[in-house]
Amino acid sequence: MKELMRRSDGPATRDTVLWLGGMLVFGAFGVAFWGSWFAVPFFLAYGVLYGSASDSRWHECGHGTAFKTRWKNDVVYQIASFMMMRDPTTWRWSHTRHHTDTLIVGRDPEIVAMRPARLARILGNLFGLVDVPVALRLMVIHACGRLTAEEQTYVPESERRKVFTTARIWVGMYLATAAACVLTGSLLPVVLIGGPRIYGTFMHLIYGLTQHAGMGENVLDHRLNTRTVHMNRLNRFLYWNMNYHVEHHMFPMVPYYRLPELHEEIKHDLAPAYPGLWAAYKEIVPAVLRQLKDQTYYVRRGLPEGAAPLHPVSDGRAVLTERSAVA
Amino acid sequence: MTQWIAACGVDDVDEEDVLPFQHDGVDYAIYRSPDDTFYATAGHCTHERELLCDGLVMDRVIECPKHNGRFDYATGKALGAPALVDLRTYPVKVENDTIYIGV
Ligand code: FES
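The joint structure predicted for all components is written out below.
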């Protein structure tokens, strides 16, 4: 197991060059064709790299597992946090709580589809219609030197100054973008900065909803409240292998590029993975719709015969016992 | 006054790895660095008391298995959120291929 946790800088460096390099190339073509319909596919690609792929970069670098070198994780984490409009400090702490109390109602601040799901919110967020105004509001609150009541429950006192400083810098950057729009009489600056969090963010939600939507809440065994979904290479690049989400929750120290191997090692102890996004959504959509009427309903997953039980002293992570094949 | 407790043999800890040790109901973690030096710290992470022996040793850093909090195991220094409180460290000596920790 420890072998699978070992880090190297190579895969994440390659993927970061492709990610940021892709944005540069697609953005440059988008700018070149600005004003014509030819710009649309380039900005679509730019927007998905900015507003969707940043989510998994934010996630992996927040865990500090993508790169071996610490500062590289930190730099990419800051860039991705800015693009996703997530304060790097408050979100680090909310994600910490998400891993302690995954889908524990009242504790997990990152449940996307609650029971019953707020459907309008989920659909609106395909274009950031809730997330972006909320993020901007929080940015202003933080820039004024305050945290919300909920944030105060999980962000330690010693970390709060960082939140305020970041928010002031970001407010400055967005004001500069808005000023550039006014001065140039063009929307191009906001299409490049901030805008992709609206027009390019749909894929991050499409991927993200597969993680836990419709599954049981208040369950300690993450094999039962998390999905692993097989995806093609492009989706796995954009999502940084977070489609192996059961594996990630069970072993958060394994870097994204080793998750396929981890999956092979432990799949005999897991419920079968979903063959694709389509299969996952065939389950998610009816389950979430049914939960609108019946809040006791949730997707029940069965573990294979003879699957290793949870570790008896587990505190919430699904840790397998010795019987697991991971050595 | 330091009490030296025999914890394990030198070969029990792999290079760049960590081993759990319990004494008097208290958990400790014993480390072997890549340059073959031994160290000992408290057994639990200072964030949410996760056992560090299930974590990953990288050079002089132990990463907690639960939220990836990191500590310099030689000094106990917490290296950043969510690990904010330093780990307690214990002196170590090696005699006749046995590792002793001072408690
Ligand atoms: S318990 Fe160790 S980092 Fe949270």
